[in-house]
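I hope you will forgive my troubling you with a question about protein structure. I set the record out below, with my sincere thanks for your time.
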Amino acid sequence: MVTSAIPLTPEQLKDRLIKDGLRGIEQDPRMIRSPHKLEGSREGFELCRTLNTPEDFQRIIAKRGQERMELIKKKQRGKATLEDCWKHRFATVQIELVWECMKIAWDVPGTKSARAGVRVGQLLGYTDDSQ
């Protein structure tokens, strides 16, 4: 039997994803050893606080894709470092992670991530009592 215990609004879910994400990266030894990745991840989660609609997320993810290509070109010309590229990528990954979960909360049409579905289910308190 599947049960749910915790109703959350989309905004509450987003806040929880951000708080849990920030806590997770602060405790991850791999992040602590890579300050640029840690900083990028923080930036990504913090940027999510300003994204309030599906269109906001889609717009920023598209923009970051363009920025990534520009950053790679800068790196090739010696005007950006590998750390700059990783920082940008890790920020984008966190935005994409929150977006995948928010697509479920907002019931955005299209493909949903199974990982995001499990995470949202956990946050909403869904349990599978059949095991």
User: Anything to note?
Assistant: The first strand starts at residue 2 and ends at 3.
